């Protein structure tokens, strides 16, 4: 398995994964995203020095995307697996590789994940990755890791 930075060519895959019904249910914004808006967003994201997008590949397949947003001293992390690769235990590897990589690139204090309370797969994943629940704000669980 290999981690790399996302490129413009990943746009269609990231778009399809983002509009997956479970991803939408587990996102803060549950609206379906339109392709043109997505392309514009990706272009800005790839040029944003405070944002990183990583893609995990397994042989010729793309397993998923991990996003980091720098906010002051902290990072906000989110992960979205290709629906075809969920439930195979690949999420922990993906998240771990992405965090290892971002540690090489950026100095930061805390990594923060915001998770809906009914997102059991994500809660299990982040806890296995060493995140600890700190609080619940606006019905989102806040998990952190140093
Ligand atoms: C969250 C996500 C990355 C997890 O990846 P995944 O491949 O589905 O997760 P896994 O199959 O590795 O499961 C992770 C753990 O959760 C457990 N789990 C999965 N579904 C569960 C459920 N409904 N109830 C309880 N535990 C569950 C699994 O058993 C596994 O635990 P284990 O390692 O002890 O077996 C993936 O489901 C996803 O992309 N979801 C949509 C986007 C999303 O929710 N992102 C996170 C936003 S914070």
Task: Write up what this structure looks like.
- There is one protein chain.
- It contains five helices and seven strands.
- It is of the alpha+beta class.
- The protein has a single domain (2-145), classed as Gcn5-related N-acetyltransferase (GNAT) (Aminopeptidase).
- A seven-stranded mixed sheet has the order 1-2-3-4-5-7-6, sandwiched between helices.
- Strand 3 (61-71) and strand 4 form a beta hairpin.
- The two termini are 25 Å apart.
- 20% of the residues are buried.
- It binds coenzyme A.
- Residues 22-23, 26, 78-81, 86-91, 113, 115, 119-122, 124-125 line the site of coenzyme A.
Mean pLDDT metric = 96
CATH class: Alpha Beta
Q: State the CATH architecture.
A: 3-Layer(aba) Sandwich
Rg (CA only): 14 Å
> Structural class of the secondary structure composition?
alpha+beta
Strand content: 25-35%
Major sheet = 7 strands, mixed
Supply the number of structural domains. Answer: 1
Show unreliable segments. none
State the order of secondary-structure elements, H for helix, E for strand: EHHHEEEHEHEE
Q: Which molecules other than protein and nucleic acid are bound?
A: coenzyme A
Helix content: 25-40%
List the helices and strands and how they pair.
Blueprint (H helix, E strand, L loop, with lengths): L1 E4 L5 H8 L2 H6 L8 H13 L3 E8 L2 E11 L2 E8 L9 H15 L5 E5 L4 H9 L3 E6 L2 E6 L1
Parallel strand pairs: 4-5
Antiparallel strand pairs: 1-2, 2-3, 3-4, 5-7, 6-7
The site of coenzyme A has 21 residues, from helix 2, strand 4, strand 5 and helix 5.
Give structural attributes.
single chain; 146 residues; alpha+beta; seven-stranded mixed beta sheet; 5 helices; binds coenzyme A
């Amino acid at each position: 398995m290999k981690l790399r930075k996302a490129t413009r060519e990943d746009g269609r895959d990231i778009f399809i994964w983002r509009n997956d019904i479970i991803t939408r249910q587990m996102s803060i914004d549950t609206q379906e995203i339109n392709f043109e808006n997505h392309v514009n967003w990706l272009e800005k994201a790839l040029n944003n020095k405070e944002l990183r997008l990583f893609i995990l590949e397994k042989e010729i397949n793309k397993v998923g995307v991990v996003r980091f947003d720098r906010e002051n001293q902290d990072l906000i992390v989110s992960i979205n697996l290709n629906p075809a690769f969920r439930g195979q235990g690949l999420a922990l590897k993906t998240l771990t590789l992405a965090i290892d990589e971002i540690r090489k690139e950026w100095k930061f204090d805390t990594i923060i994940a915001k998770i809906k309370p009914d997102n059991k797969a994500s809660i299990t994943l982040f806890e296995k990755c060493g995140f600890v629940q700190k609080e619940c704000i606006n019905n989102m669980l806040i998990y952190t890791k140093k």
